[in-house]
Design brief:
Blueprint lengths: L1 H12 L6 E2 L2 E2 L2 E8 L2 E7 L7 E2 L1 E3 L4 E2 L9 E3 L12 E8 L2 E8 L2 E7 L22 E8 L5 E8 L3 E9 L4 E2 L5 E2 L19 E9 L2 E8 L8 E7 L7 E2 L8 H4 L5 E7 L5 E7 L10 E11 L6 E5 L8 E2 L2
Parallel strand pairs: 7-25
Antiparallel strand pairs: 1-2, 3-4, 4-6, 5-8, 9-10, 10-11, 12-13, 13-14, 14-15, 14-16, 17-18, 18-19, 19-20, 21-22, 22-23, 23-24
Length: 324
């Protein structure tokens, strides 16, 4: 088992993860923020500069840095930034005219803010700390409900990776620990297709609300696994309990045609249509650098359940590239 794991791991390091190669974009754990007639894309860089860079587009296909710099950084290590290494999975959240960036660094979840979408995202020097330093946690997502309450969805480790939620104090950048609750447990075959290598992994949360129903998108399997995929669950409360969609996974190599398809984010396009941005493996045999992909979503109301059934338009996967 160890020999097999080492061979897979080495394959992910052979090319390194960069922002662009052969005109394609190589953000892992990507997210898209939409504002003022433009799309803004960021994600995990890998072997590029430490921190997070941003690209912009008007059509989802062609992207550029916006200032001529190949790495237009919105967060970099420094005295007003938490973390020195392992910068993963950024998410941008806007509230009352201010932008917040939650991200993982040093296997901790952190938050920084800016008056500008393109940063720089910083904290007061006296407040540079993780959101909850009591234990390791990653893959954060802030959700604001209609009543004004904030929730932080994130991943905690316990013989595997699991998604948790807690009420969040945005002003202080802390969770209310007494509200911590695990969202999902490993129950489905597609969530763990290689029992010999890893504990269960459920990560990359995104939450949306439609007609009073909460939808939690998540990825399962290890990102090195070709069966890394995306499913979702629903609830009547942001704290759950969550019911997994029987049609999951909705994004998988058998659906979109590329290995390791997962860990992304939901967004609504300038055309008013829903999309999901995610990453895939470099090739059928090599994991890294992971490529960025965008797929239109198909959301249909199910009259029997009263909820929406969500699938993807597999024939129209977008391959983002650097270019005008």
């Amino acid at each position: 088992m160890k020999v097999r794991f080492l061979s897979v791991l080495l394959s992910t390091l052979s090319l390194g993860t960069i922002v662009a190669q052969d005109n394609q974009i190589y953000f892992a754990d990507p997210t898209v923020f939409v504002e003022n007639g433009k799309y803004y894309l960021t994600g995990t860089i890998g072997d590029g500069p430490k921190g997070f860079a941003i690209l912009e587009s008007t059509d989802l296909k062609h992207w550029r840095s916006g200032n001529g710099d190949p790495f237009r950084m919105i967060l970099s290590p420094g005295e007003k930034v938490f973390g020195t290494d392992m910068f993963w999975a950024p998410q941008i959240f806007k509230d009352n005219g201010r932008y917040y960036l939650t991200y993982s660094a040093n296997e901790q979840t952190a938050v920084a803010s800016s008056s500008s979408l393109t940063g720089p995202y910083l904290r007061d020097v006296s407040d540079v700390r993780p959101i909850d330093g009591s234990e390791k946690n990653i893959d954060s997502f802030i959700f604001k409900d209609d009543d004004g309450k904030y929730y932080l969805y994130h991943v905690r480790f316990n013989h595997g990776n699991y998604i948790w939620v807690a009420e969040f104090d945005l002003a202080k950048g802390t969770i209310k620990k007494e509200t911590l609750r695990q969202c999902l447990r490993y129950t489905e075959d597609w969530e763990k297709t290689d029992p010999d290598l890893w504990d269960p992994i459920m990560e990359g949360p995104t939450v949306i609300k439609r007609d009073g129903v909460y939808y939690l998108f998540y990825s399962a399997n290890h990102f090195l696994n070709k069966d890394y995929a995306v499913g979702y669950a629903t609830a009547q409360s942001p704290m759950g309990p969550w019911t997994k969609y029987e049609g999951s996974p909705i994004i998988h190599r058998d659906i979109v045609g590329e290995n390791g398809s997962g860990h992304g984010d939901f967004f609504v396009g300038l055309d008013g249509n829903p999309y999901y941005v995610y990453h895939v493996h470099y090739s059928d045999s090599v994991v890294a650098p992971r490529r960025t992909r965008i797929v239109p979503l198909v959301i249909k109301k199910n009259e029997k359940t009263g909820q929406c059934d969500i699938s993807v338009d597999r024939e129209n996967v977008i391959v983002p590239i650097i270019g005008k």
